[in-house]
Amino acid sequence: MTLSTTARRFAAVLTVPLLIASAAACGSDDSDDDGGKKKAKSVTVPAVSAEDGKTPKIEKGEGDPPKKLQVKVLKEGKGKKVEKGEVLNAAYLGQLWDGTVFDSTWKEGRSPASFQLGTGSVIKGWDEALVGKRLGSRVEMVIPPEKGYGAEGKPPQIPQNSTLVFVVDLKKTMPSQIDGKPVKGEPNADLPKVGTKIEDKAPEIEIDKGAKAPKKLTSETIIEGDGKEVDAKSTVLANFAAKLWDGKDFANTWEQGGPQEFPVSQIPGWKDGLKGAKAGSRVVISVPEKDFPKEQRAQFKSGIVFSVDVLSVN
User: Fold this and answer.
1) pLDDT tens figures, 189-237
2) What is the spatial distance between Cα 51 and Cα 147, in angstroms, rounded to a whole number?
3) CA-to-CA distance for 39 and 139, rounded, in angstroms?
4) How far is CA 93 from CA 54, 63, 77, 110, 141, in A?
5) Is the whole model's pTM more than 0.85, yes or no?
6) Cβ–Cβ contacts within 10 Å for residue 178, how many?
7) What is the pLDDT of residues 42-99, one digit of tens each?
8) Which domain of life is it from (predicted)?
9) What letter does residue 290 receive in the DSSP assignment?
């Protein structure tokens, strides 16, 4: 899956991976032998070479691609098993069955990506294959079209009905929800009311009809965590909802693949609005039109409100 069009709507310079995927564990094709019984039929997955932790080199597939998902643990890690619903941080290389590479976090300027597993946020192949694997493992997956991008593909990089081959290094798991406590006291009257209940969905941002955005950047922590603090150079793993001050919903990562990593310097208002916020917090930020690049101001003429759940800080 693409890491969000959401981020690109805010900042075209944000570097995000083309896709984040998952796969179902299945190591053989079934066929009927002469006695009418099914027996396992060996399937050869493309060979992989590389030093541990280095960029893998995957050979192109030979013959017809397998019709079922294939999963091979190239190196067994010693960490804990990844559980459904956790956010996995991983390095990966993805290519087509013919050997054409379409994405890699080992490319210059890229870093391991984070995505939520087992919740439908990524393609079925990754969801099925990586839940239950141990951190520190290197896993190869051959994903048939029905567990990847199917008949539609993901043009231009991934054609229709493509079989995908991935090598994934499972780095670490990260929180999928904040764990802070609601801040006591009266909320800032200049900001919309935002819920403090922690759920697997975005909190409601309640903007009164006719309300106007503050003329200056305004932010407030409404749930306070006790983790690492955000500074101007931080990258945060976050879920967020965004709403224009005219009442129109703009974005919601809970509905767009789950938590994502964002350099705070690359989303208007976040560098200053999240400054000092701790991991585990929910922060409300109102960003006026003037704080957006000139080419984006028409889109944000009324100003915008973010509700940001800061899951971790790097």
Assistant:
1) 999 999 999 999 999 999 999 999 999 999 999 999 999 999 999 999 9
2) 29
3) 25
4) 11, 21, 18, 12, 11
5) no
6) 23
7) 567 999 997 778 999 999 999 999 999 999 999 999 999 999 989 999 999 999 999 9
8) Bacteria
9) G
C-alpha to C-alpha distance for 33 and 4, rounded to whole angstroms: 47
Domains and their CATH numbers in the chain:
5-174 (3.10.50.40), 181-313 (3.10.50.40)
**Which strand (E) or helix (H) includes residue 142?**
strand 138-143
Structure-derived torsion over alpha carbons of residues 8, 263, 166, 89, reported in degrees to the nearest 10: -140
- The DSSP 8-state label assigned to residue 237 in this structure reads E
Strands 38-41 and 138-143: unpaired
Q: Which residue type, as a one-letter code, is found at position 237?
A: L
Which H or E run includes 308? Answer: strand 304-313
- 3-class DSSP state for residue 127? helix
- 228: which DSSP letter? P
Residue with tokens 């499972």: 170
Predicted pLDDT of residue 290: 96
Beta carbons within 10 angstroms of residue 227's beta carbon: 18
d(CA 76, CA 94): 20
**Tokens 């767009």 map to which residue?**
256
Task: Return the higher-pLDDT residue of 172 and 31.
Answer: 172
Rounded Cα–Cα distance for residues 28 and 44 (Å):
10
Q: Sorting pLDDT into bands at 50, 70 and 90, what band is 116?
A: confident
When pLDDT is averaged across residues 99-128 and rounded to a whole number, the result is: 90
The answer to whether residues 169 and 55 touch, using CB atoms and an 8 Å cutoff, is no
* Chain position carrying tokens 């099914």: 38
3-state SS string over 26-83? CCCEEEECCCCCEEEECCCCCCEECCCCCCCEECCCCCCCCCCCEEEEEECCCCCECC
Cα dist from 36 to 30, 31, 67, 255, 300, whole Å: 12, 9, 21, 47, 66
In this predicted structure, the answer to whether residue 160 has a pLDDT above a threshold of 60 is: yes
